[in-house]
Amino acid sequence: MTDTLKVAVVGGGTMGNGIAQTFAMNGHLVSLADVSQEGLERALANIRTSLDRFVSKEKMTADQAAGVADRIQPVCNDLASAVEGVDIAVEAVFEKEKVKKEVFSVLGESAPAEAILATNTSSISITTIASAVAGPERVVGMHFMNPVPIMKLVELVRGERTSDASVDRTRAIAEGLGKTVGVAEDYAGFVSNRILMPMLNEAAFALHEGVASREDIDIIMKLGMNHPMGPLTLADFVGLDVIVDILDYMLQQTGDPKFRACPMLRRMVQAGKLGRKSGEGFYSYESK
Ligand code: CAA
Predict the structure, then answer these.
(1) What Rg do the C-alpha atoms of the chain give, in angstroms?
(2) Residues designated as active site
(3) From its phi and psi, is residue 275 left (phi > 0), alpha (psi between -120 and 50) or beta?
(4) Is residue 127 within 8 Å of residue 160, measured between CB atoms?
(5) Are 20 and 30 a contacting pair, CB within 8 Å?
(6) Ligand 1: which atom is nearest the Cα of residue 122?
(7) Rounded Cα–Cα distance for residues 20 and 29 (Å)
(8) Residue minimizing CA distance to atom 17 of ligand 1
(9) Whether the CB of 147 sits within 6 Å of ligand 1
(10) Ligand 1 atom at shortest distance from the alpha carbon of 243
(11) Where are the alpha helices (DSSP H) in the chain?
(12) What is the pLDDT along the chain (288 residues), one digit of tens a residue?
């Protein structure tokens, strides 16, 4: 294990709580910042559920799980104090450029000048986010995959002004978490979502056009391509709102019609069918 780091994770949603848990599982001290107390409580409950899974699979003792939970300090509505003295801050708020820039302007002012300022954005330009910060050379994309404690990859994204030292330091931190790093340049969607989103969108179009049933689309892709999940199951897992947001951003950035969101996908989002987290998407889920 590397030295103990002081870490701030900004945003307690699915990705934020997984990132906080992963740092804490590796012995680091985490401030988990969110604007809502309810959001923080939900985040801590999700972390406990995930830790319980590790305990029940005998990959961790109950004492170790309690130690992980103790290393995560929730901070409500006080971002400036959450980033005081940190070695790294990882932002994982909504996939909206304006919100991310607001967060980064606070990070730039309140985190130590030598801290790495990472964003878990899945598509938005690192260069644009970094423009909100004095010292953009310390801003880097650190794109974790869901479920963060299990998935091996961190996609590391280098903005136009990101320094080599920041890339090297972030790589070392990610590898210290047991992750493998793939580096991408700063173009919309990077590598992961430039390739994944058209696949998920195409699965929705295939259903929309009646090419096959949802089960057949999923089984053909799962068994035929040896993917762990079929694309419609994976879409529900990622969140249909997240997918539409990413596709809209990529369409706007590139002008390429291959990123046009399937109308059925958009209509489902408008109806509140967001996938697993809302209990309904392409499939229904008993527990969210
Ligand atoms: N916490 C703790 N343990 C977990 C967990 C969690 N959140 N989720 C899964 N696990 C554990 C399970 O307990 C199980 O452990 P054992 O191997 O000891 O039995 C193991 O992981 C496998 O889980 P399951 O048996 O429940 O089911 P599975 O074999 O289907 O694996 C999965 C689940 C890991 C999610 C797998 O289905 C998978 O890899 N799916 C694809 C995930 C993927 O593509 N993620 C990327 C999405 S894109 C993204 O995140 C970025 C973006 O920008 C949109």
Answers:
(1) 19
(2) 122, 143, 155, 193
(3) left
(4) yes
(5) yes
(6) 53
(7) 9
(8) 57
(9) yes
(10) 54
(11) 14-25, 37-56, 62-70, 79-82, 97-110, 126-130, 164-176, 192-208, 214-225, 231-238, 240-254, 263-270
(12) 458 999 999 999 999 999 999 999 999 999 999 999 999 999 999 999 999 999 999 999 999 999 999 999 999 999 999 999 999 999 999 888 999 999 999 999 999 999 999 999 998 999 999 999 989 999 999 999 999 999 999 999 999 999 999 999 999 999 999 999 999 999 999 999 999 999 999 999 999 999 999 999 999 999 999 999 999 999 999 999 999 999 999 999 999 999 999 999 999 999 999 999 999 999 999 865
* Residue 30 DSSP code: E
CA of 73 relative to ligand 1 center, distance in Å: 25
Q: Decide: helix, strand or coil at residue 158.
A: strand
229 in contact with ligand 1, CB cutoff 6 A: yes
**Token reading at 135:** 């010292």
**Ligand 1 geometric centre to CA of 149 (Å):** 9
Q: Is the CB of 210 under 6 A from ligand 1?
A: no
- Residue 144 in contact with ligand 1 by CB distance below 6 A: no
How many Cβ atoms are within 10 Å of 183's Cβ, its own excluded? 15
| Full-model pTM | 0.95
* Pocket lining: 149 vs ligand 1, CB cutoff 6 Å: yes
